Amino acid sequence: MSPIPSAALNQRILPAATPPELLRNFCIIAHIDHGKSTLADRMLQLTGVVDARQMRAQYLDRMDIERERGITIKSQAVRMPWELDGTPFALNMIDTPGHVDFTYEVSRSLAACEGAVLLVDAAQGIEAQTLANLYLAMENDLTIVPVLNKIDLPAAQPEKYAEELAKLVGCEPEEVLRVSGKTGAGVTELLDRIVATIPAPGGDPGAPARAMIFDSVYDTYRGVVTYVRVKDGSLSPREKIVMMSTRATHELLEIGVISPEPVPTQGLGVGEVGYLITGVKDVRQSRVGDTVTNAAKPASESLGAYQDPRPMVFSGLYPIDGSDYPVLRDALDRLKLNDAALNYEPETSVALGFGFRVGFLGLLHLEIVRERLEREFDLDLISTAPNVVYEVTLEDRSVVTVTNPSEFPGGKIMEVREPVVRATILCPSEFIGSVMELCQARRGDLLGMDYLSEDRVEMRYTLPLAEIVFDFFDQLKSKTRGYASLDYEPVGEQAADLVKVDILLQGEQVDAFSSIVHKEKAYAYGVMMAGKLKDLIPRQQFEVPIQAAVGARVIARETIRAIRKDVLAKCYGGDITRKRKLLEKQKEGKKRMKTIGRVDVPQEAFIAALSSDSAAPKDAKRK
Ligand SMILES: Nc1nc2c(ncn2[C@@H]2O[C@H](COP(=O)(O)OP(=O)(O)OP(=O)(O)O)[C@@H](O)[C@H]2O)c(=O)[nH]1
């Protein structure tokens, strides 16, 4: 019913582990902007963990970039005291990252909970990520607490959406709680409901320790801080632990809970959520999804399969000023300490000089990394158009994995495979036609369609990842006046009729512009790129052909006309043969210029040509 002063609770927590029956581990899942962070802030305040003086909006989003963009990138866990009927409980709220790029981390965070608060905006209703998150929570067997948020809004329709939500989770509309994260209305009842309905964590206190890592972050002063949820047994300071996927052994230097800042404890027992510090310096030694056990008495089986983060999208990153290359290399090394999913190798480009080919989980991940590099390391960067990973089978049956279009094999190709996703789109039924049109243009296959209510539909498509990572979400929004929401998950690869389009300047290939596209779209890409470069490259003393080619076949051509020096300017009057002679001479000169040297293209032209079409679906995120 009421908060316990946090100091008192901390004293109770500090010496020993809290008994599992007094613990509740939950997360809040919602569609983007349905108010997850605001509700979390209100809970922190109501439980007395953060007082009014310390309070700032989005308390749990600690990185600047998270706060500015209003998104959660890394998971967080906070312990809050709450008393129901005179019994003091400890609630662990695990905040999850929202974007589809980080789905693996979301599912690990969910696996650390027994229950989930499913939050839906009372003025918007169910959206694509509401469903995606609900399904993830159900896969993890979580108890769902359905909640309508923002009931203070004049546009709120709690009756209508309570019914929709009740139908979705299988309960009565009256059981759907109504809250406002903004005013705090209903939040006390929600905390009571969490304690009453979410089960206490199970686990065997006598078994060898097993704890799942659901996040790990790099701290400049303390090294890697690993967030874990203990399933069986217990962990205590100074003991030796083993990471089960790598078998690496570390000593536990510190162990504790977050409430809301780190508080060291004597240990973590069954069902508890907290942090470990081992002194390792690189998050890849302590990865999300791995299981921690005790070195002296190791568990025989880990908690679920561990997955290495797999980059889905690649892009070349180049410093605009070539002398910044060593700074970029050091900056990537530093970021890698905190980002297990970041992959990179050096590469060189004729157009852009020295840089790196970097693998990302998705476009948002790319944007965040790029922004952090620019901001935290003061670098000016250019990134090449992002591409997905292709698998090319050659006639001799060997398979080449292509992460850079300019490396696409030129020889005899049997098959090219590209990654595909299963996309879920929710929109008002009046936009069905426009959405279908868009998905068809993007090589989508309709899997199914369901009416959620009279006027809202859920459409399911398989789409090539390459077709949706770029501007699909923007297009979807503009075709549905902002009403559609999108979610997608990778479902494997499929063979497709793909070709590499090269761009040639005066017959010389410009690697940064090579792109792998569907055969039917090759022509459009070629025309677009050639046209763009024609506008961007300044006229030269000689004619510059810009060609788009598939293999040896030219599919589009533009010409940058030469600046024609008026050689006749000084030749007043005179006879025609003299003029002709001068013009002939000029032509000779131009021919020579064409054959010697390369076109003088300012780097800005490359940058402009590359940057305009790499817009990311910024808010295609899962909340
Ligand atoms: N009127 C009203 N507005 C709210 C309420 N809760 C959140 N908002 C507003 O809704 C917007 C989104 O809220 P956030 O808490 O950032 O939502 P979120 O996207 O789920 O959280 P993030 O993880 O930070 O992205 C903000 O402008 C909030 O001020 C509410 O109960 N009432």
In short:
With 623 residues, the protein is of the alpha+beta class.
Relevant terms:
single chain, binds guanosine-5'-triphosphate, 623 residues, Alpha-Beta Plaits, disordered C terminus, 5 domains, Elongation Factor Tu (Ef-tu), domain 3, 15 helices, Rossmann fold, six-stranded mixed sheet, alpha+beta, elongated, eight-stranded antiparallel sheet
What is the topological layout?
Layout: H1 6-13, E1 23-30, H2 36-46, H3 64-69, E2 76-84, E3 87-95, H4 103-111, E4 115-121, H5 128-139, E5 143-149, H6 158-169, E6 177-178, H7 187-197, E7 210-219, E8 223-232, E9 240-243, E10 249-251, E11 254-258, E12 262-264, E13 273-277, E14 291-294, E15 313-319, H8 325-336, E16 343-349, E17 353-360, H9 363-376, E18 381-383, E19 387-388, E20 390-394, E21 399-402, E22 413-428, H10 432-441, E23 445-453, E24 456-464, H11 465-468, H12 472-479, E25 485-495, E26 498-505, E27 508-509, E28 515-518, H13 519-536, E29 544-550, E30 553-560, H14 576-595, H15 603-611
Parallel strand pairs: 1-3, 1-4, 4-5, 5-6
Antiparallel strand pairs: 2-3, 7-8, 7-14, 8-13, 9-10, 9-14, 11-12, 11-13, 15-17, 15-18, 15-19, 16-17, 20-21, 20-22, 22-24, 22-25, 23-24, 26-27, 26-28, 26-29, 29-30
Helix pairs in contact: 13-15
Guanosine-5'-triphosphate binds at residues 30, 32-38, 58, 61, 70-72, 98, 149-150, 152-153, 180-182, 623.
GO biological process, one term: positive regulation of translation
Catalytic activity: GTP + H2O = GDP + phosphate + H(+)
Subcellular location: Cell membrane
